[in-house]
Amino acid sequence: MTTQELIAASSKYLANTYARFPLVLVRGQGARIWDSDGKEYLDFVGGIAVDALGHCHPKMVEAIRAQAEQLIHISNLYHIEPQIRLAQLLVEHSFADRAFFCNSGAEANEAAIKLARKWAKDHWSSDRHEIIVMHHAFHGRTLATVTATGNPKYLHGFEPVVPGFKHVPYNDLKAVERAIDSRTCAVMVEPIQGEGGVNIPGDDYLPGLRRLCDEAGILLILDEVQSGMGRTGKLFAYEHWGAAPDIMTLAKALAGGAPIGAMLAREAVAQSFVPGTHASTFGGSPFVSAIARAVVRTMLEEDLPGNAARVGKYFLDRLSALKGKCPIVALARGKGLILGLQVTVPARDIVTACMRRGLLSLTAGDDVVRFVPPLIITEADVDAALTILEAALAEVAK
């Protein structure tokens, strides 16, 4: 099929749930990707913070090949060696004592919501079930997680919403303190809001949430689906603020592109999940667990969080310098390799102009251009991306 025939078939046969760009991407290597017409792009989307090792990293490819030749799927009715080894690796490098595996970030957040409610009923009372969540959050598209997200754009047409969530402003400790009452079982928050605009909290925010939860005897849930796995310059974002959660969710970069989600928890909390309380048919399969373990080990062995910190600072400094050079640039912000450029025009216009010139980026809300490239990128990649971005900004500014 030609590119146009593929796009026409996509429009005919697929559910119309995405406003797709008119590209068919067919091959990738490192931080670069090619479309069906052979055009090369710098990939600063990375599958939306998924392709942490870039495209077709040899260690990931080898893990896929080796596991595919050995065992792809069995049921969680049995012990699964790659799953056990992955859980051990995550526990040994985090606050957690136990892991539960599923298939996506939304499912990981569903598991966290269920565990928090079950823990509260085990330790408090039957009506202690509410979870405090933040404005401009994004926790997924299931009915519970889209309710926790709270964005009217995502909720419209799916009412009634799931009860048990209370929304307050992000980065506002007083608002959380006022919201906690006798029905609160947990506070759920992204350490850095990705979809909401690459919003970075104040230095006292996560430690303050930890203190408020301890004082109230409730749980702190951190959604690190986007910010986790080296993205911010640490393996997990909470490490920047020294505020360990009770429950943490992961997905996206955990398996470098293979579908997986994980919920990690402290022992005292995880005990509320017993046989029959929660499950996943495909969660933690031998195939995806082996891939994820190879990805995490590569992140640690090659110090990709350290690379994200170094190259991310260079990238942020260069983005910040655009404010004085381009009239439509308002602000640059971010941590590590989750970066946002706030602009005074529709961000999608800039994303489209960059794409035409060979740079893939994405939006975070209406006025922020977001960059979440593979963690393997170099300063030279950033320089190439900035050359394209500056030309795109100049075009849109006219």
Topology, please?
Blueprint: H1 3-13, E1 25-29, E2 32-35, E3 40-43, H2 46-49, H3 58-68, H4 81-92, E4 98-102, H5 105-123, E5 130-134, H6 143-149, H7 152-155, E6 165-168, H8 173-179, E7 184-189, H9 205-216, E8 219-223, E9 247-250, E10 261-265, H10 267-270, H11 286-301, H12 304-321, E11 329-335, E12 338-343, H13 347-357, E13 359-360, E14 362-363, E15 368-371, H14 379-397
Parallel strand pairs: 3-13, 5-6, 5-7, 7-8, 8-9
Antiparallel strand pairs: 1-2, 2-3, 4-10, 9-10, 11-12, 12-15, 14-15
Helix pairs in contact: 3-11, 4-11, 12-14, 13-14
Shape: globular
Strand content bin: 15-25%
Tell me about the largest β-sheet: 7 strands, mixed
Structural class: alpha/beta
What's the number of domains? 2
Distance between the termini: 37 Å
Radius of gyration: 21 Å
State the low-pLDDT regions, or none: none
Instruction: Determine the mean pLDDT.
Output: 97
Under the CATH scheme, the architecture of the largest domain is: 3-Layer(aba) Sandwich
CATH topology of the largest domain: Aspartate Aminotransferase, domain 2
SSE series: HEEEHHHEHEHHEHEHEEEHHHEEHEEEH
CATH class of the largest domain: Alpha Beta
Helix content: 25-40%
Summed up, the helix count is 14
CATH superfamily of the largest domain: Type I PLP-dependent aspartate aminotransferase-like (Major domain)
Question: What is the spatial order of strands in the main beta sheet?
Answer: 4-10-9-8-7-5-6
Number of beta-strand segments: 15
